[in-house]
Design brief:
- By secondary structure, the protein is of the alpha+beta class.
- The chain has 15 helices and eleven strands.
- Helix 1 crosses helix 12.
- The chain starts with a helix and ends with a helix.
- The relative contact order is 0.20.
């Protein structure tokens, strides 16, 4: 029997059993659809996270923390061993202006800027909201760390300009970011007022007297609106209000933002809670971290987190693939069942073929072609099913997230190797499932088969 004749005979048998073939192929379709959707989801997440790191240039960022660890982990047990980078037997060095100057002159550091935030009441378009204002140099405001939805960054460190976040506008029911460009924003800060403070009459304060604070108002011009981050909010910039350092120095404000700043204070100055370093390239990260740790400080590098995230995605893809494989296994059992039933129904037919000269190889070939055809159909339709389901899920999820102001995100990714691999894998599984029926059909005794009627 020629190969083409065997293929034609096998496909004719499948056409004669349309319903059974369709149901068996549907099992493969569901299995491949589940597998493709799950792996596509894992690939989509990995793509979104990787692109977020690259677009925001986060791999070029290193955060320097004081050796005491108070700034980012205030709940750390004081009895624990000192964090890496802290000098043994010595007092933790503060992150002050002298340290900032040394950090900025480390090889591989492009710019160093302290993490300065202070609370303020923001008033825009007759709406008020209490926010933490972050001080950002003009060079950083012009970098890829700041993605603008409208307007432009401030170009000088002494401008009375402000960049606000799109999430803030949404809470103020302002839909168009461009509508606020050029508007005036009123920033009200709180500062100490010791002019009317009487240390000898502290009891009056606790009895409802006037507190030693005053409110100062400052006017800024809105020049830019930042986009909402869909993925990876772990950036050095985490605020809805950004002002340049020159303007920040003119604002009277409290010298601390939380109680941990007071614990960290040395010689009456709390220093900085953290310093963000902008590197010349990600390759300089290891050398910069070593230099920082030699100075007695700890570091937090997003490039390290990125490598951990990539490792986590490998395990996640394996778990998702394992779940999808369960459906494929069930579909393989369906193929085996269909092929075994086909042997019983065509027992005499197989005997006749062997009686007229068909070899065992010819019989195996017929059953292998049938099983692989079922797998191919299931793989093609499964790929379509996985894509369709992912489109529906993606639309529904983005519909609800859009109400929270999160931009449209493609949560699934179907690469060419995933599409091709899904079809090839479906055919391969079907061939494996067809081994037992093919071997059993090849062993049919033609004499016994002709007496089967």
């Amino acid at each position: 029997m020629r190969f083409s004749e065997g293929v034609h005979f096998a496909l004719s048998n499948l056409r004669d059993m349309k319903l059974r073939t369709a149901l068996t192929a549907f099992g493969v379709t569901v299995g491949i659809g589940a597998l493709v959707a799950m792996i596509g989801f894992g690939q989509g997440l990995q793509k979104n996270v990787s692109e977020s790191f690259e677009k925001l240039d986060l791999l070029n960022s290193v955060t320097v923390l004081p050796g005491d660890g108070f700034s980012r982990n205030p709940l750390r047990d004081p009895d624990e061993s000192a964090p890496q980078g802290r000098r043994r037997g010595g007092e933790a060095k503060p992150l002050d202006d002298a340290a900032l100057d040394k950090l900025e002159h480390l090889p591989g550091v492009e710019i160093a800027f302290p993490e300065i935030r202070f609370p303020a009441m923001i008033k825009l378009a007759d709406l008020e909201e209490l926010k933490l204002v972050q001080v950002v140099p003009a060079k950083i405001a012009s970098s890829r760390l700041v993605k603008l939805a409208a307007g432009k960054p401030f170009l000088r460190d002494d401008e009375d300009s402000v960049i606000i976040g799109q999430t803030l506008l949404r809470r103020m029911n302002i839909a168009d970011p461009a509508a606020v460009i050029g508007r005036k924003l009123l920033l009200s800060s709180i500062a100490f007022d010791l002019g009317g403070f009487d240390p000898a009459n502290l009891a009056a304060i606790f009895q409802g007297g006037r507190l030693p604070f005053k409110k100062q108002d400052y006017e800024f011009t809105v020049v830019g609106v930042t986009e909402s981050l869909g993925f990876m909010g772990l950036t050095p910039l985490q605020s809805d209000i950004y002002i340049p350092p020159g303007s920040a120095r003119r604002i009277e404000k409290l010298p601390f933002t939380n109680i941990w700043d007071l614990f960290r204070a040395k010689d009456g100055s709390p220093g900085y809670s953290a310093v963000n370093l902008r590197l010349t390239s990600p390759a300089a990260a290891d050398a910069v971290k070593r230099g920082v740790q030699e100075m007695g400080f700890t570091t937090f590098a997003l490039i390290d987190q990125f490598n951990q995230v990539k490792t986590s995605f490998i395990f996640m893809d394996m778990v998702l693939a394992a779940v999808g494989m369960i459906a494929i296994f069930v579909a393989a059992l369906g193929i085996i069942n269909t092929m075994m039933m086909s042997i019983l129904e065509r027992y005499s037919e197989i005997g006749i073929m062997k009686a007229v000269g068909a070899s065992r190889g010819d019989i195996k070939r017929i059953f292998f072609v049938e099983s692989s055809a079922i797998g191919f159909l299931g793989g093609i339709f499964g790929l379509g099913l996985g894509w369709a389901v992912s489109r529906i899920i993606n639309r529904v999820v983005n519909y609800f997230l859009a109400k929270q102001g999160i931009p449209f995100i493609e949560y699934f990714r179907f690469s060419w190797w995933l599409c091709l691999g899904a079809v090839v894998f479906a055919v391969l599984v079907s061939l494996i499932a067809g081994i037992l029926p093919a071997l059993r059909a090849a062993k049919v005794d033609p004499v016994v088969a002709l007496r089967h009627e």
